[in-house]
Each structure stands twice: as structure tokens, then as C-alpha cells.
Design brief:
homodimer, about 300 residues, alpha/beta, Metallo-beta-lactamase, Chain A, 7-stranded mixed beta sheet, 18 strands, about 30% strand, globular
């Protein structure tokens, strides 16, 4: 059981030779979710040896080019590579028209089923849920409609102790019930109390992704207690007015959100191209929220290390 | 006076870590023309130190992604960089809708004038002409409507000899007339015959760009005698039927076109990803047309060396 996040790109606005705009890959127990998809993302995926066919769900936060211009290329490459599996895209409804018009211009009928799930940016919504994970969305405040995403691992209420399975020879079909609080009866009909067999299953993982947004305390309740929060920090605090003007956040604002939401770790990125190094941005953020890291391109975070 | 062509990308279909799909930059006496614009082209331009603002005209051959998916990113970056100069795009009319829908989704009003010139793929047409250059288009035969382009340097009929300008103290305002065949009268009213002052101005440069196309002898009259012909050669000759099926050409077909059109040099590219090296493709092409080179990514061709 592991969650890993790979930063494929984290710069803002314009791609350069060594800096790609936003794209991240979340590997949630071998299910692969792509979050944003700037121009060049398919090459970044190749660079970091992530096979396209593993990605089944793509989440696009908003329709500024530095967050989605690479999507049509990825969709097309999946087609050229003969993909057969379903692909699900969650994005602003206008993106469907943008995809369709380009496929139509190329006279391309995709060889795999593409399901488009429109986001309605004014409302929170659950986008996907099964026994293992819940993925939801919530509005951000940016110049155009923009969505944040929350990936929450779902765990059973109790965690069964491996040595007890062996000790009492517990059959597989009983394990789920025990994880949910049932007691166990041995072959000799001896009752073993649940509290002997299990411990509380704490520490489920959650990842909150807040791409472009101005400072917004409405976020706090959506992301509270997240294991990791990605929050943009386009400017340093001395450019607070520029941040407001462009619907972005400063370092201190990102840190304040992290602190007030009581998240465990903060990752900042989307720095303005005016900053040649991330050093000062990180330093300033840490004055408010110590557990901060920088979304360096190529970084892979293993949630079990957090 | 110089023409230079830089190959920004020349692979087919899918971009990889070290191979970009089609894009070329023609520097025609310090006027910069971008020809096709696959995903990643703006980064390739940066890599080869070509400033975006120098590009005033962009020519897109057709609407398969490996020839234009990088255009919207380049247009957007030019906007973010505060471009003021006009940009002219020559492409299939559907590309205007594709650009417009994406600018509209981002709520972007470009800060520079963008002029879109629709190509009508069934007809030859002159796209741009002035004293120095003529740029025209002609149809190719591909799965979807597709255009070739011809860039022709315009030279005066005669070339004036520099030493004669000095010898007879010829004023600047007389030079144009002499280049067009007039005689010259000295201050003493002595007539100097044009043939003493000039030589024939031969060897004007022309570059023909034939991106994706099946074998098509209709091209011959359009491109005849070109200094350089770029012609795709997606497959080797043993895959002729695959080439036909996909509306592409083989090495031998590209070479045959070059030979029959009597061009001086042929450049081949757009090789199928099945070929790990271009060596065999080049060798096979040369069996029919010796003056062949490969469109290696990063290659710059100085036409004065041809």
C-alpha cells in the first residue's frame, strides 16, 4: 500500500528548456492519476518512465494553457499507441469542445473510450469513489473558473494484526468483518474480542491539490488535516498586490492556508519566472509553516516518508 | 544576403525525450518563417536561441497534431511576453476555430494583432510576396487536407559589379535600374553599357516544403529546380503498401520526386518510429537521388553552402 506523487512540471506560464509548467502524477496504490497536463507532459512522463497506458484518470484544474496544453497531445499519442482501456477526463466543460474540435480536424476517431466528466466549478463534488479511494473537487478562486482536487485514501475502521491471523487461523473471508469491528469465533467456538485482534487504523493518506488560486479561506474546511497540500505560491510576500491582481497567492498566503487547515506538509510551486531560485520562496514560506517543500520538477514524494 | 533553415523537429507522430515532431525555421535574410509547429516547438526555439518576437509568419501544413499542437502554446507565450508586432498564420481554416476556442476558454485577448490567413487546400495560391520573396502554397495528398509551401527568393535580373560602382562613381539611385538592364551615363555623359557593369544574376534560392504526402507527381511542376526540397519519407521501400495505406511516402518515392523535379538537394524526414536510425533510410534514398541529407533535429542548413 503506497501513495507516491511525481512532479512532472511546476513552473508557471511559459515552458522553458529545463522547466515545464504544471503536471503531477499521483500513484495511489498502483492507480495512476494525472493532475494537470501542460505542454510537454507526455515527454515528461516518458522521461520519468511512467507508461501512458497506466493512466486512467486525468484531472485538469482550469483552462489556462500552462495547465492543459499538453492534454490533446497525450490523448492523441494514446490513440497512436493503440490504447484500448477507458480514459476518464475531469475538467471544465469547455475542454470537451476543445478536444472534440481537434480530433475532428484530424479526422480521428479514438480507438479507446474517452469519458469526459464536466466539473461545475461553483460546487463541491465527489468525482470518483470506491472501496479504496475518494476523489473530490472544490472551487478555487482564480481569474477563470478553477478547481482544486482532494484524493483521500479510504481505510477500514480497524487494522488486523497479522500475528493474530496466524495464531487463531482466521480464514480470509472473516477478515473484512473483523476490520469493521466484529469479534471472531474459533473452530472451538471460543469468542475472541475484536480489540485483541485489531488496532485502530489511523493515518489514512490524503493529498490536496490547489493550483492557481488567490488566498481563500473557504479552502480550509475542504483540505483540513491533509497529509500533503500542494498550494501555488506564485509570488513572494513583497508582491502581494501583484498576486491579488493576477489571482495568485504569495508564499505567506500559501503557508497561512496550510497552517490554518492544519495539514501535515505543504508543497509550493508555480513560481513566477522572475525568481531564478526557489530558495527565498521556501525560506519565506517556512517562517509561517515549517513543514514545507518545493515542487521541484522530477521530485517523487513517497507518502509513507511523510 | 543569406537563407538558413533550422530543423526544430523532424520525427513523426509522437514526441519523445530526444525527438520532436515537425517544425522548421527558415531565416530568409533575417525574416523568420516558422513552418509547422508540433508540441514542444517553443522549447525547441529557446534551445536553438531563436527569439519568438522575430517570427512574423507561421505556416501550418495540416491539422495532424504532430504538425501543430505546439502552436497554441507559442501564441500564448508570445502574449505573455508582451508581443506587440503582428503575427500572421497561414493554415487550414479550421485552425482559426481551434485557436479561438482556446483563447476564449482562457479569457485571453491577445495583446498583439493576429492575422489568420486560411489556406484553401485544393488550390495553388500566393500567400505573401514583396520585392525580396514570394511564398506560395500547393496541395499535397494526405489523409486530410494538407498544404506544401514554396519560398522563393526574388532577385533582380542582373547583378551589379561592385568594382564598377566605384570606378564610375555610380550613385545609389541608379543601381536598381542598372540591375534591371539599363545602361549608365557618367557625369561626362559617357554611356557605359549594362553588360560592362553587370553579370547575370543566377542562382536565386528556393525552398520547397512537402510535409505529409503520398507519392504525387502533381508536385513536380510546383517545386521544379528548387535549391532544397524537404520531402517526407516515413517508410523504407519495403513498406510501400503501408505508406500508401497511411498516405505517406517511401524513401524511393521521395527521391523519385526530387529527381523528376530536378531539385538540387533533397532533405528527408518524418521517419516512422520503427526506424531507430536514419542510416538505412538515407542510403536507400541516395540510390535514386544522391544529393540527399537527413532532417536531423538541430541541423542548420546555410543555403549558400548548397
Amino acid at each position: 500500500m503506497s501513495y507516491k506523487l511525481t512532479v512532472l512540471g511546476s513552473s508557471s506560464a511559459i515552458p522553458t528548456v529545463d522547466k515545464n509548467p504544471t503536471a503531477q502524477l499521483l500513484n495511489a496504490n498502483e492507480r495512476f492519476f494525472l493532475i494537470d497536463c501542460a505542454e510537454g507532459t507526455q515527454v515528461q512522463l516518458r522521461k520519468y518512465k511512467i507508461k501512458f497506458h497506466k493512466i486512467n484518470r486525468i484531472f485538469i484544474s482550469h483552462l489556462h494553457g500552462d495547465h492543459y496544453f499538453g492534454l490533446i497531445g497525450l490523448i492523441s499519442s494514446m490513440h497512436l499507441l493503440g490504447r484500448e482501456k477507458e480514459l476518464h477526463i475531469y475538467a471544465h466543460p469547455k475542454l470537451k469542445d476543445i478536444i472534440d474540435i481537434q480530433l475532428s480536424a484530424a479526422n480521428t476517431e479514438l480507438c479507446y473510450p474517452l469519458f469526459f466528466h464536466p466539473l461545475f466549478p461553483e460546487k463541491d463534488a465527489v468525482l470518483f469513489e470506491d472501496k479504496k479511494i475518494k476523489i473530490s473537487t472544490f472551487p478555487l478562486k482564480h481569474g477563470i473558473e478553477c478547481n482544486g482536487f482532494l484524493f483521500e485514501e479510504k481505510r477500514s475502521a480497524r487494522k488486523i494484526l497479522k500475528e493474530k491471523i496466524k495464531e487463531y487461523n482466521i480464514p480470509i473471508d472473516k477478515i473484512k468483518g473483523i476490520k469493521n469491528g466484529l469479534d471472531f469465533f474459533t473452530e472451538e467456538d471460543v469468542k475472541i474480542l475484536n480489540e485483541e485482534l485489531t488496532i485502530e487504523n489511523t493515518g489514512s493518506i490524503s493529498y490536496a491539490f490547489c493550483s492557481d488560486t488567490k488566498y481563500n479561506e473557504d479552502l480550509l474546511e475542504k483540505i483540513k488535516g491533509a497529509t500533503l497540500l500542494y498550494h501555488e505560491a506564485t509570488f513572494m510576500q513583497d508582491r502581494k498586490s501583484r498576486a491579488e491582481q493576477t489571482n495568485h497567492s504569495t508564499t505567506i498566503e500559501a503557508a497561512t492556508i496550510a497552517k490554518k487547515a492544519n495539514v501535515r506538509h505543504l508543497m509550493i510551486g508555480h513560481f513566477s519566472q522572475r525568481y531564478k531560485s526557489s530558495e527565498d520562496l521556501l525560506k519565506e514560506t517556512k517562517t509561517v509553516f515549517k513543514n514545507t517543500i518545493v515542487a521541484e520538477q522530477g521530485l517523487t514524494i513517497n507518502f509513507s516518508d511523510l
